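Structure tokens
________________
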Amino acid sequence: MNEISNNEAKCRIALESLQHVIDPEIGLNVVDLGLIYQINFDEDHSKIDVVMTLTTQFCPMGESITEAVKNALEHAFEGMETHVELSFIPGWDHTLISEAGLKFLKR
């Protein structure tokens, strides 16, 4: 996975938490789908900034997925506010799917 973070230890915890956020149309979590690009932690302002994408700009479940990402991180990091920014640069494609994700999809 190629997520960028300013705190690798907290990023690992965040990614574990985000394993439970499932894209309802595909049935795979947002981490293994490769939708998470960046997670940064601002301890001074108790804030988490996430840059992520969706499989398509017109994803009908986009709002639900981004809200689930926000909720999962705020649950994992109590007292921190999460801001989710959608970015379509680079655009998502199947090459971003993890090995575990590919195995899941081939079942």
In short: The chain has a mean pLDDT of 95. The chain has one domain: 4-105. The helical segments are 8-18, 62-76, 99-105. The chain is about 30% helix and 20% strand.
